[in-house]
Design goal:
The complex is a heterotrimer of chains A (377), B (412) and C (295).
Chain A lengths: L6 H6 L2 H21 L3 H27 L6 H17 L5 H24 L4 H20 L1 H4 L5 E2 L9 H28 L1 H11 L1 H6 L4 H27 L1 E2 L1 H4 L2 H14 L6 H20 L4 H16 L4 H13 L11 H8 L31
Antiparallel strand pairs in A: 1-2
Helix pairs in contact in A: 3-8, 3-11, 3-13, 3-14, 4-5, 4-6, 4-11, 5-6, 5-11, 8-9, 8-11, 9-11, 13-14, 13-15
Chain B lengths: L18 H11 L14 E7 L6 H20 L8 E7 L4 H14 L4 E3 L4 H13 L4 E3 L15 E3 L10 H9 L8 E7 L2 H16 L3 E8 L7 H10 L3 E5 L3 H12 L6 E4 L8 H4 L7 E5 L8 H14 L5 H20 L6 H12 L2 E3 L2 E3 L12 E6 L2 E6 L16
Parallel strand pairs in B: 1-2, 1-3, 3-4, 4-5, 6-7, 6-8, 8-9, 9-10
Antiparallel strand pairs in B: 10-13, 11-12, 13-14
Helix pairs in contact in B: 2-10, 2-11, 3-4, 5-6, 7-8, 11-12
Chain C lengths: L3 H32 L6 H17 L9 H19 L8 H24 L14 E4 L2 E4 H23 L1 H11 L1 H6 L4 H26 L7 H15 L4 H22 L1 H18 L14
Antiparallel strand pairs in C: 1-2
Helix pairs in contact in C: 1-5, 1-8, 1-9, 1-10, 2-4, 2-8, 2-9, 3-8, 5-6, 5-8, 6-8, 9-10, 9-11, 10-11
The chains are: A mainly alpha (377), B alpha/beta (412), C mainly alpha (295).
Subcellular location (chain C): Cell membrane
InterPro entries (chain C): ABC_transp_permease, BCAA_transport_permease
Keywords (chain C): Amino-acid transport, Cell membrane, Membrane, Transmembrane, Transmembrane helix, Transport
Chain lengths: 377, 412, 295
């Protein structure tokens, strides 16, 4: 990835090798419907792809700016409900409704982002959680519009199609959406805009003093992220057909997305995708194998806690770095330390934080490996 | 897992999967529990998704016991078409998204021979659509609300005497036939935002309003409501002659306790579902006197299959069956009658034969003989029960009553 | 127009509810004051305590109030461990963000384990005095609600005295206001911070018991508490205990009154509207502001 995200790695993995890997991945995804052994596996594939799109969309905010949103599930739900309602109540054709719903979600994201991003740190997360809860309330209470707890039935865009065919078409639609989201992320990553966003992630104060319009940048990328999330949610609604407020506006969806992105690595283009494959496939597997128990929830919580505690930069990057240390031990002496890391070491801990026993465990691979970020408001 | 599952999508075309993709597919598919595939020795596998946890877990478990009783009683008599009946039950956690994935798995992956319905109307519509789109027969024990029958399903049949809106018909007739001086003049309604629960309350509301009985409170609350004190305060402040709760279980209990905390004493109190539950009396501190509830089932019904059901169910589970158990058992009876008549039970063309047979015939069940209209709606009515003398007894219609209705009801 | 009796009844219900909100918000405020941590798992612990109260009543036949003998020390210990073993491990520069994620993960973990242990079925303590009530100027107050409010009031008062009148409280306030200075005068700020978390979590133990007396509980219920609670601490000004208490009583009252015209669900939106309005127009909160660091 020729970008500021991770320069050393980009040199290590040669261009051609990367291209082959990407092509192989694309081929695997595109051929999946023909070798999926039964329609259930195909439908599970659609679910996993949906997760991949959502977590990649999430990563526009989480990866570039370091702001962690737990409310993206609600934005997806909003996209779903907006699409469904535009079809059912306004009589729009399915895909016109989808486009309109995407714009609507992006528009709604502007005031939300305005309230949430004005202050740094915790309040963004609080607002993102509140977003889920408030949309759940509205969807449940405004029954005359949304159908309330009875749910909303979204008409099939291709009526009369047998279920396996229906799954197949939507599998390709989700794959196309994933490709689009990845492409846009890649473009942003290489742009000046992306550079500004990453400056916010590394040190928002410094970025601001250097003239980056941080608030505007954050807001724009939040709206882009919301738009993709809404689009994925709307597509899901067209595929799934039955919307239930409790599931559409679920904190759990949001936490899955965070887990996927953190697991795969938020600084990598394909990080969320890989995370979605691992978590999504794992979820389906455990459901089939052990049935549907609340232990899913417990396992999700536990995994998330472990990732946050031990591998906040992602599991795959951590594994990659570990492999790196064994492969090229010599390099570890040429250590580049960022200002942020220095600051961190110097930083007297806030009261109660147990400092000394926490040597920098991260490995000397990335030079621009920002650890800086947000203080409380 | 691939050998028999490829019926719908031949897998031979694109075998050149990458290692990652193949691993994914293996992981996803690596746990095939092979259902029946139509051979005459295999059991007939009946796939069901039920809310064994979550909002509807209490009735969900009742439905599960009903299905289990049906499978056992059927198998003890030699099974269906000489094949044993085997149940495959998944837990949907009362969640509409899971219920769809469950039926998708049961039909698409586990390749069950028959699917029958889940519990709670809210879950029936999504589940029925899966069955419909796979061309499967779908007999269900709990899709009582009218929207179930307006979706255009062709394979759906509701295995109970009446839909939710008709549950209180006998009560409405009784109240409207009272002399004007005795008739309740004001009613307070509180209903869960759930198609079944709300359907029962609003069915009665429509009939009473048409008869000139005034509605003074009309509250709808979402299923996850826990604090009923304000709703109760509104009802108590209205001093309505009668309170009607469109409830499932816990919400009904909570509302009644909250009303009792406010010392509200209506002349009549009717709640759906909750009062018929075995735990109900203990849950509200035994202050049950006079509470009404509709029911589609009574253990004392004289139908031959019901006598057998009550006896064998009691032997199996140690207590007599309730309405949820009976509805599940009825569902099994309808499926069994169709399978026996059509002479087949597997996916594919057989399903249409089963549908056609049920559409054109009457089935004798533990809740009486059932027939359906073109949308799958049953053609009957519910009885009304009341807590009299510490137990719940049938009071309406008069020809089926065990005791006389107590009106106005004593203080609770 | 609702009758006067109904209004009065609603005011009383709102105040009773506000008391519980105030206690729980006080715990959240403590965490934030000590470590700038927004503790998402607070209400999950609340539900955990409620389940323990329910369980001890349903299975052991003990009065739910007695369960606090176990839950309060237990939660105090858990709070200390949570702070010392988990939150203190996080890198200080990303602490705010990562601590939210970590406590979120703990909340999800507790919800999952509760669901596994007790299933998702709604539970309610069946008390002999469950439907008893006393009259007050025409309104009726359920005895269980009164007990719950009493618990909250006593716990809040204890907390106040603990912070104002004890050496520990003095050290804790010093740690919150100026950690470096506190260390200089010999306060072991790490220890004190841990204990502060313990005290915060103990409020959840009391709150959970109070909650279990009169409501149905189920594992995912904590989401319906954390939203209002977060709104309360933001409106109150993050870090200000009196601010949180005022915001709690006020919002509890408004919610209860709004339920008359709007119904239960719409009335809940008042919390989120207040939250959004506060962040958009007055991010430092309405009752805290510069007082945020003082008790």
């Amino acid at each position: 990835m020729p970008s500021a995200s991770d320069p050393t790695r980009a040199h290590r993995l040669g261009g051609p090798l990367r291209a082959v890997a990407i092509l192989a991945l694309a081929a695997a995804v595109l051929s999946f419907p023909s070798w999926a052994p039964n329609p259930y596996i195909l439908s599970a594939g659609v679910v996993v792809l949906n997760y991949a799109v959502l977590s990649t969309s999430w990563n526009f905010v989480g990866g570039f700016t370091g702001y962690i949103s737990l409310g993206h599930g609600a934005l997806a739900g909003l996209g779903g409900y907006a699409t469904g309602l535009l079809v059912v109540r306004a009589g729009l054709p399915s895909f016109v409704a989808l486009a309109a719903a995407t714009l609507l979600v992006a528009a709604v994201a502007v005031p939300i982002g305005y309230a949430a991003l004005r202050v740094r740190g915790a309040s963004f997360v609080i607002v993102s959680i509140a977003l889920v809860l408030i949309l759940l309330l509205v969807a449940q209470s405004w029954a005359s519009l949304t159908g309330g707890s009875r749910g909303l039935v979204v008409p099939r865009p291709f009526p009369g199609l047998l279920r396996p065919e229906h799954h197949r078409i939507f599998f390709y639609l989700f794959a196309a959406l994933l490709a689009l989201a990845l492409l846009v992320w890649w473009l942003v990553d290489r742009s000046r805009f992306g550079l500004g966003l990453k400056a916010i992630r590394e040190d928002e104060d410094k970025a601001e003093s250097l003239g980056t319009p941080t608030f505007a940048y954050k807001l724009v990328v939040f709206v882009v992220s919301a738009g993709f999330t809404g689009l994925a949610g709307g597509l899901y609604a067209l595929w799934f057909g039955d919307l239930d407020p409790v599931f559409q506006f679920s904190i759990l969806t949001g936490s899955y997305l965070v887990l996927m992105a953190l697991l795969g690595g938020v600084r990598q283009l394909f990080g969320p995708l890989v995370g979605a494959l691992v978590v999504g496939v794992g979820l389906e597997y455990f459901k089939v194998e052990f049935g549907n128990t609340p232990l899913h929830l417990a396992a999700t919580g536990l995994l998330l806690a472990l990732v946050v505690l031990f591998m906040p930069d992602g599991v795959l990057p951590a594994v990659g770095a570990l492999a790196d240390r064994f492969l090229r031990p010599a390099q570890s002496s040429i250590r580049e330390v960022t200002a942020a890391e220095l600051r961190e070491q110097r930083d007297t801990a806030p009261p109660g934080a147990d400092r000394a026993a926490d040597p920098p465990t991260e490995l000397p691979v990335g030079a621009v490996d920002g650890r800086s970020g947000k203080e409380g408001p | 897992m691939t050998s028999r599952a490829t019926r719908t999508s031949r897998a031979t075309r694109g075998r050149r999967a990458t290692a990652l993709g193949a691993a994914v597919a293996l992981l996803l598919a690596g746990c095939g529990d092979d259902g029946g595939s139509g051979s005459s020795d295999d059991p007939i596998v009946v796939g069901i998704s039920l809310p064994l946890t979550g909002d509807f877990s209490e009735p969900g478990k009742g439905v599960q016991r009903g299905y289990e009783a049906w499978a056992k009683i059927t198998n003890d008599k030699g099974g269906l078409l000489g094949r044993q009946v085997e149940l495959k039950i998944l837990d949907d956690q009362s969640n509409a998204d899971r219920v769809v994935a469950d039926y998708e798995q049961l039909i698409g992956k586990d390749n069950v021979d028959i699917v029958v319905g889940p519990f709670s109307t809210r879950l029936v519509v999504p589940a029925a659509r899966v069955a419909e789109e796979y061309g499967m027969l779908f007999v269900e024990p709990a899709g009582a609300a009218k929207e179930v029958f307006t979706q255009g399903f062709k394979n759906l049949f509701y295995a109970a005497p009446a839909v939710a809106d008709d549950h209180y018909n006998h009560l409405a007739e009784y109240l409207l036939a009272l002399p004007p001086g005795q008739r309740p003049t004001t009613v307070a309604y509180a209903a869960m935002d759930d198609p079944f629960a709300q359907g029962t309350a609003y069915g009665l509301k429509a009939k009473l309003e048409a008869g000139g009985v005034r509605t003074v409170v009309d509250e709808v609350y979402p299923p996850n409501t826990t604090d009923f004190s304000t709703i109760a305060a509104k009802i108590a402040a209205s001093r309505a002659d009668m309170v009607v709760g469109g409830s499932q279980y816990q919400d009904g209990v909570n509302l009644i306790v909250a009303l009792q905390q406010l010392r509200y004493q209506p002349k009549l109190a009717a709640f759906s579902t909750a009062p018929t539950s075995p735990e109900f009396a203990a849950a509200i501190g035994n202050k049950t006197e006079g509470i009404l509830a509709p029911t589609g089932y009574t253990q004392k019904a004289p139908y031959p299959s019901n006598v057998e059901f009550v006896e064998k169910y009691t032997a199996q589970f140690g207590s007599p069956p309730e309405e949820d158990e009976a509805n599940a058992y009825t569902t099994g009876q309808v499926v069994a009658a169709a399978v026996t008549a059509a002479g087949c039970a597997e996916q594919g063309e057989c399903q249409q034969k089963l549908v056609d047979w049920i559409r054109g015939n009457k089935v004798e069940t533990v809740v009486g003989p059932l027939t359906w209209d073109a949308t799958g709606k049953p053609q009957g009515a519910h009885m009304i029960q009341q807590w009299v003398g510490g137990q719940i007894q049938i009071v309406l219609p008069t020809e089926a009553k065990e005791v006389d209705i107590v009106y106005p009801k004593p203080a609770w | 127009m609702p009758s006067g009796a109904l209004l009065f009844q609603s005011v009383i219900l709102g105040l009773l509810l506000g008391g519980l909100y105030a206690l729980l918000a006080a715990g959240l405020t403590l965490y934030f004051g000590i470590m700038r941590v927004v503790m998402i798992a607070h209400s999950a612990f609340l539900i955990l305590a409620a389940y323990l109260a329910w369980w001890s009543h349903a299975r052991l036949g003990v009065d739910p109030l007695l369960s606090m003998v176990v839950t309060i020390p237990l939660f105090f210990g858990l709070g200390v461990l949570l702070q010392r073993l988990l939150l203190a491990r996080l890198r200080p520069v990303t602490l705010t963000m990562m601590s939210v994620l970590l406590t979120f993960a703990i909340a999800v973990l507790i919800e999952g384990l509760l669901g596994y242990a007790f299933t998702g079925t709604q539970r309610r303590i069946q008390l002999g005095y469950g439907s008893a009530s006393i009259g007050l100027f025409g309104a009726r107050i359920a005895v269980v609600k009164l007990i719950a409010f009493g618990l909250a009031a006593v716990a809040l008062l204890t907390l106040y005295l603990l912070l104002k009148r004890t050496r520990f409280g003095w050290a804790l306030r010093a740690t919150i206001q100026h950690p470096d200075a506190a260390r200089l005068i010999g306060i072991d700020t790490d220890r004190i911070a841990g204990f502060g978390f313990g005290v915060g979590l103990a409020t959840a133990a009391v709150g959970g018991t109070a909650l279990a007396l009169d409501t149905t509980i189920y594992p995912s219920l904590h989401w319906h508490w954390i939203g209002p609670l977060m709104a309360i601490i933001v409106v109150g000004g993050l870090g200000s205990v009196p601010g949180a208490a005022v915001a709690a009583m006020l919002l509890g009252l408004v919610q209860s009154l709004l339920q008359i015209p709007l119904g239960t669900t719409w009335a809940q939106t008042v919390f989120y509207l207040a939250l959004f309005a506060t962040l958009a127009f007055r991010p430092q909160g309405f009752f805290g502001g510069r007082l945020a660091q003082r008790f």
